């Protein structure tokens, strides 16, 4: 099994991260080495806002599923503390108010389907799903976590709860990770055909693998990574022209870039840059 300490995701996603940090405390943590083939990282989100104060957190979609434990102020649709969020193809908005605590397991692209034996396509655009692939004792152990516990203790509990589900990694899932790694490692690849040539994989097989494991098409994943790159640059204070930014990440014209950016982010790149 190849080393899977390497990232299979971009570090972008949270819109206006500096603003979010004024309202919540976000911590990312590593998982146990035995879980690294499937899990990208853990994260803990905690907030305690004054009465009458709220904040809308917006996140761009990643091609990955999340298992989360949520207590306190919860998002729409959450009625039990342990839930699964599938791959979302749209911006993910959550209004935060009062006090709340979330501990999330961010799986790698395809990782949740491989880890649980499910088909990722069935979870596409499902923001809240029950954790049915996991045994009742696993769900019960996770539900006991909360803000009263140290974050490192929570990490240890989650490591132990998920450890019984580890298995041999399927070659097809390993292929998905290799394709994702190629997409992330060479940002000059802007068309799926280029990725197929680089990875030596046919169109129909790639589409089948992504539907089974990722839940979204290769074209969608590649496009999301390009938007993530552009948003990250803007958040980092990019001051160049938008035409140059569009060309940097493979758009042939600024109008096309503006349209795709606006559809996903909700505002134009010029407005976001302000």
Q: What's the count of strands?
A: 7
Straight-line N-to-C gap: 46 Å
Strand content range: 15-25%
| Molecular shape | globular
Q: What is the count of distinct domains?
A: 2
Strand order of the largest sheet: 1-2-7-4-5
Description:
It is built from eleven helices and seven strands. Strands 1-2-7-4-5 form a five-stranded antiparallel beta sheet. Helix 3 runs antiparallel to helix 4. The N terminus is likely disordered. With 274 residues, it is α+β, with helices and mostly antiparallel strands. It has two domains: 149 residues, no CATH class; 103 residues, Orthogonal Bundle (Arc Repressor Mutant, subunit A).
Protein traits:
274 residues; alpha+beta; Arc Repressor Mutant, subunit A; 2 domains; 11 helices; globular; disordered N terminus; DNA-binding; transcription; AraC_XylS_family_regulators; Helix-turn-helix transcriptional regulator
């Amino acid at each position: 099994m190849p080393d899977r300490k390497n990232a299979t995701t971009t570090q972008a996603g949270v819109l206006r991260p500096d603003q979010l940090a004024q309202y919540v405390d976000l911590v990312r943590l590593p998982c146990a080495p035995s879980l690294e083939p499937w899990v990208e990282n853990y994260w803990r989100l905690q907030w305690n806002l004054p009465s009458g104060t709220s904040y809308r957190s917006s996140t761009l979609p990643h091609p990955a599923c999340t298992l989360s434990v949520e207590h306190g102020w919860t998002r729409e649709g959450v009625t039990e503390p342990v839930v699964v969020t599938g791959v979302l193809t749209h911006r993910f908005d959550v209004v935060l108010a009062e006090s709340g605590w979330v501990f999330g397991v961010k799986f790698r692209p395809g990782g949740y389907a491989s880890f649980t034996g499910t088909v990722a396509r069935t979870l596409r655009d499902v923001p809240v799903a029950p954790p049915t692939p996991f045994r009742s004792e696993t769900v019960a152990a996770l539900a006991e976590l909360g803000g009263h516990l140290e974050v490192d203790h929570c990490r240890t509990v989650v490591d132990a709860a998920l450890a019984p589900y580890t298995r041999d990694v399927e070659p097809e899932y390993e292929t998905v990770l290799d394709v994702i790694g190629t997409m992330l490692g060479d940002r000059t690849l802007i068309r799926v055909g280029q990725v197929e040539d680089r990875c030596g994989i046919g169109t129909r097989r790639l589409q089948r693998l992504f539907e089974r494991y990722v839940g979204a098409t290769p074209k969608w994943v590649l496009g999301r990574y390009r938007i993530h790159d552009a948003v990250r640059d803007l958040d980092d204070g990019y001051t160049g022209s938008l035409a140059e930014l569009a060309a940097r990440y493979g758009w042939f014209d600024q109008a096309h870039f503006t349209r795709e950016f606006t559809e996903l982010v909700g505002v134009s790149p010029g407005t976001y840059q302000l």
